[in-house]
Automatic annotation (TrEMBL):
Membrane-spanning residues: 26-44, 71-93, 105-129, 149-169
Cell compartment(s), UniProt: Membrane
InterPro entries named in the record: Marvel (IPR008253), Synaptogyrin (IPR016579)
UniProt name for this protein: SNG3 protein
GO cellular component, one term: neuromuscular junction
Highest taxon listed in the record's lineage: Eukaryota
The family this protein is said to belong to: Belongs to the synaptogyrin family.
Keyword annotations of the record: Membrane, Transmembrane, Transmembrane helix
Membrane topology listed for this record: Multi-pass membrane protein
Organism: Aramus guarauna (Limpkin)
Length: 230
């Protein structure tokens, strides 16, 4: 993974939409977003059926267990909006200048992806178990394909959300490259000598300081004082 700080470069860098869409993380988010639509869309549209023509009331196709349908719909909706939220976060992640804010975003992504992986695992087990206990009838057979689709894409969602959690963990372990804060005045070679003190132009100034003549530093003899003769 390239980047200087949690998988991204310096803040304020230009974003290439094509490169962004090609990123594995973006592809995974779009994929799980589609899977969530398939799951809750299948349950809402075709997984509420009549027992027979004599009973107009609609029942959940999964062993007539309303909790199974409600749980599948709830997890699908949570995943749907979660994907949109983190897609936007990924889009503006490079604009985040604070390293602490980047770290919080990555940790939030890691926690949410792990949590959704668990929710989808429970959804897959719950729906598959209730489907095995379902008594086949004319109404059930009409929505059987939708029920199988919900179960299948629940399983696929586990894999994709685990992959997103792994990607977030990799970004977290990358941390921050402290070379971002290095200045250009230091040599890149560790064995290179430290740059010396800057020298002048090499031309000596004509206005150099000169001490006054020795005779000018002598004070005049005090009045009346004579040097004794030997």
């Amino acid at each position: 993974m390239e980047g200087a700080s949690f998988g991204a470069g310096r803040a304020g860098g230009a974003i290439d939409p094509l490169d962004f869409l090609k990123q594995p993380q973006t592809i995974l988010r779009v994929t799980t977003w589609i899977f969530s639509i398939v799951v809750f869309g299948s349950i809402v549209n075709e997984c509420y059926v009549n027992k027979d023509s004599q009973d107009p009331e609609l029942h959940c196709i999964f062993n007539e267990n309303e909790s199974a349908c409600s749980y599948g719909i709830a997890v699908g909706i949570i995943a749907f909006f979660g994907c949109i939220f983190f897609f936007v976060v990924d889009l503006y992640f490079q604009q985040i200048s604070s390293v602490k804010d980047r770290k919080r975003a990555v940790l939030l992504d890691l926690g949410f992806s792990g949590f959704l992986s668990f929710l989808w695992f429970v959804a897959f087990c719950f729906l598959a178990n209730q489907w095995q206990r379902t008594t086949m009838s004319k109404g059930v057979l009409q929505g059987a394909d939708a029920a199988r689709a919900a179960i299948t894409f629940s399983f696929f969602s586990i894999i994709v959300w685990v992959a997103l959690a792994v990607k977030a963990l990799q970004r977290y372990r990358l941390g921050t490259d402290m070379s971002l804060f290095a200045t250009d005045q230091f040599a890149t070679d560790p064995n290179a000598a430290y740059p010396g003190y800057p020298t002048g132009s090499g031309i000596e100034s004509t206005e150099t300081y000169q001490s006054p003549p020795f005779t000018e530093t002598l004070e005049a003899n005090p009045k009346g004082y004579q040097v004794p003769a030997y």
